[in-house]
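Thread: zinc ion complex, take 2
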Amino acid sequence: MMAIKNCLECGKLCIENPSKLCPECYAQEEIHEHAVGEFLRETGKATIEEIHAATGVKEKIIVRMLKSGRLFSDGMIGYPCEMCRKPIYEGRLCGSCGSGLAEQVRKVNENRAFEERNEHQRTGLRMYTNDEIKK
Ligand SMILES: [Zn+2]
Ligand SMILES: [Zn+2]
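Output below.
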């Protein structure tokens, strides 16, 4: 079944395909991909901003290529950490935001455990261990 969709890039109607782009934009994207690929082969490692500056390819397009996994084979691309926007090369957060987040989660869990203990003391309830339930 063929469906008609708007091209993701220019909005023109086209036959639905995995790239979600019309034939013209797809051809354009292949050129972009080639340029970015070449640049990465030369530099090995670059941020999206650097790629944009060097190739003129729109950052939006680079991000799309990155998300579709088409660029990883040719080199490392830095993209912004989702919290502080610092360039990172893997995952969704940079090291410091990642560990900061882990710390926050730990604190929340600690507080929750503390509140639960208080609750049990106040109501005189206590948690039964699995062994006690079995008896
Ligand atoms: Zn298009
Ligand atoms: Zn960060």
